[in-house]
Write a structure and sequence with these properties.
about 450 residues; about 15% strand; six-stranded parallel sheet
Length: about 450
């Protein structure tokens, strides 16, 4: 099978992880643009180079496409860019012509512009540092009540609403393309959700027009990559806290059970009972609220003994956002690992991020025509050292990106070597020069 993949940006979870996952099956021919063409925190993607890449692709079976990358230059530029709808129309027309010429199933995602409830402008326009929380409140009240008052300067509100309207109009164009049969699957992603807000309102309007919206963001291209593998696995979710599945994760607007079921279905799989399941999905979910170590948001950690089953299984560790539950990982490591039935672990960022990426890796392993254990091991080493070693532990010991991370990570590498029964040779870097993400080079 031949698959082409256009990521959201150049972060390791968006660029390196899909390459590793696709490599789990050596029978897959995987096409991805050079990393230098993709955008970053402050860099916009080379949109012309990416259009040329897309146009010159050889015949493939499936294309997984991040539309924000082609149109705006990335997810972050979609919020920051100043181009008008009129200025983007010629690019939209060219993209449409190229996509119509491809004899491939196209799985596409476009974001609904988020509204962060903070005063940080690292991923937003400059004025967010002063007015971010006020704009969030304005958006919330405008959707909830139909009217809202704010002391944010008029020109800033107008600029913000103009950017939202531009992106919304482009998303409506994609629905027209879908009706023309261009997309096999089209997903509108929404992250950092609240009960109300202009992003929630837009999602509702897109659904009325026939669009499909999904809570999440960075994992959705991976979920679509799963979907491109045309086999419907049966997956049985089992929760460590079965009476708490109606609780809502941080940064999401649906219950953890709905998030789990939705990610299974988006991956082209189906929710199953234990007896009929191809794979068991263990979910280390939370009581009362989801914790988050870096934000000092506490929750009750896992308490008990977690025993591996005798049936193929994978593990989504979502008790905490942005990192693993140390108690749960320690309990896992008391088990003897059977690689034949182990299909992966993840605790990456949000619950949706964890689930979408985990299921993708597991599906590629399960369906592999030529299983490549080296790449599957790379995926597990990366997730454990990033989600557990770094995010849940070492990150709290750093005040800025620092080379001493290598020394601090050594105890976690040693424990993981024992668990995986594999020698680990890694190095680390900070691709966006901030602590939020680390790159594990295996």
């Amino acid at each position: 099978m031949k698959i082409a993949f256009l990521p959201i940006d150049n972060r390791p979870v968006c660029y390196t992880m899909p390459k590793i996952i696709a490599g789990i099956d050596s029978d897959i021919e995987f096409y991805i643009p050079e990393r230098k063409f993709l955008g970053g925190l402050t860099k916009t993607a080379d949109k012309n180079a990416l259009l040329v890449w897309l146009e010159k692709l050889p015949k493939v079976d499936a294309i997984v496409l991040s539309l924000d990358t082609l149109v705006y230059g990335g997810l972050i530029p979609s919020r920051r860019g100043s181009e008008t709808l009129g200025e983007l129309e010629a690019k939209l027309d060219k993209i449409k012509v190229i996509l119509k010429s491809k004899e491939a199933k196209i799985y596409a995602v476009s974001s609904i512009m988020r509204i962060s409830n903070n005063n940080f402008n690292e991923e937003e326009k400059d004025y967010w540092s002063e007015y971010g929380k006020k704009i969030f409140k304005y958006s919330y009240e405008l959707h909830k009540n139909g009217v809202a008052e704010t002391d944010v300067p008029k020109e800033i509100i107008e600029d913000y609403l103009s950017t939202r309207k531009r992106n919304f109009e482009i998303n409506k164009r994609y629905i027209e393309w879908q009706k023309e049969g261009i997309f096999e699957t089209l997903v509108f992603s929404k992250d950092d959700c609240a009960s109300y807000g202009l992003n929630v309102q837009e999602a509702e309007e897109l659904q009325k027009l026939g669009g499909f919206t999904k809570t999440g963001a960075d994992e959705i291209p991976l979920s679509l990559l799963s979907r491109a593998i045309d086999k419907k696995l049966k997956i049985c979710p089992i929760y460590t806290e079965p009476t708490c599945t109606d609780l809502i994760s941080n940064y999401e607007d649906v219950s953890i059970s709905k998030s789990v079921n939705g990610q299974i279905e988006l991956a082209g799989c189906e929710v199953s009972n234990y007896e009929e399941a191809d794979l068991i999905l263990y979910v280390n979910n939370f009581k009362v609220n989801q914790g988050e170590i870096v934000m000092k948001q506490t929750t009750e950690a896992f308490c008990g003994d977690f025993k591996f089953p005798q049936k193929p299984f994978m593990i989504a560790d979502v008790r905490f956002a942005n990192g693993a539950d140390n108690n749960f990982v320690n309990s896992m490591f008391k088990n003897e690992l059977n690689n034949d039935i182990f299909y992966g672990y993840s605790a990456w960022n949000t619950s949706a991020n964890t689930l979408g990426s985990l299921i993708c890796g597991a599906k590629f392993k399960f369906c592999a025509k030529k299983f490549n254990k080296l790449n599957f091991d790379k995926l597990q080493i990366t997730r454990f050292l990033d989600d557990w070693g770094y995010q849940a532990n070492v990150r709290q010991q750093l005040s800025s990106p620092d080379s001493k991370i290598s020394k601090l990570m050594e105890p976690y590498e040693e424990k993981l070597e024992i668990f995986l029964n594999k020698k680990i040779d890694v190095r680390y870097s900070f691709p966006w020069n901030r602590l939020f993400e680390v790159e594990v080079w295996v």
